[in-house]
Amino acid sequence: MARAGILYSQVVKAAAALAAAGANPTVDTVRAALGTGSKSTIAPMLKQWKREHQGETAAAGAGLPADMLEAVKGVYQRLEAGAQEQVEQLRAAHEQARQEATQQLEAERAGGRQLRAEREALAAELAQVKAAFTHERDERQHAAVTIAALRAENDGLTQRLADRAAEVKLLADQLAQARQQFDYYQDKVAEQRQIDRQAAEARIAALERELGAVRSNLQEHREALAVLRGDKAHLENKVAELGEASKAQALQLHEATEALGAAREMANARQLETEIVGQRLDDAEHEIVCMEDKISALEKANAQLLKKADSPAPKPTHAERKSRSSELPANEE
Fold first, then answer.
1. Domain residue spans in the chain?
2. Which parts of the chain register pLDDT below 50?
3. Residue 294 C-alpha from the chain's centroid
């Protein structure tokens, strides 16, 4: 059982005295220096002191003198300071490496998030492709049904074509009767063409007379416009001269300005009238060109009808045969 009253400070003092004397502090030497205490009490205290004074204990164990011990302590302290500095440098390097690793980790995490976003986008695109494939498959099925319906309709049309073959014979009988009407139709067309040509020539002559009148009127308006422009320039010069006069001529300047405004309005009205006349002239020329095109078309149609009259009559179409067959009873009456 440990004795009461042994303190750590007493153990430290005894161990320091032994180390200063060049002796190695042990449990027995410290117990002997204290003159009391148990080994179980002194041992942990002495162990703690040795951890705190490793240099002193090593020097004492080696039997070094006190001055050499102090020199060893200085060297130890310098070495410890250098080691501490190296530790700090290593810590700073470790911190920098840790920050770089953290930044790289954040970059990799950002890349991972981007990859996840791309994966989600690809998944959405895949879903769209699947939907499009499903839609296309449905459309193909619908197209197959439509093709089957068209085939059935084609069969019906084939049957209808066979039925129409019977009508061809009837229309062939009507062809001879339609040919009898051709001469009458050709005479009517020639007569109507002559009437249209005479009307077109009369219209062209009237348009040419109107065009001459419009051109004469346009020339008059242009001359009047030139006169108005001269008046306008004269009035503007007069306004400039009145602007340089004294304040006593302010009233005359105002009147001249009003006259100039009236002249400008008259010039604008004349200009508008000239533009209207020019538009009418353009419309008349366009109408003349249209009439000339119409006469040319009528002449071409007349030449084609004359050519058809000289050549054997072509077989009429189904619509023409029906039209002629419907007109035949009326002509016979």
1. 1-64, 184-332
2. 1-3, 329-333
3. 50
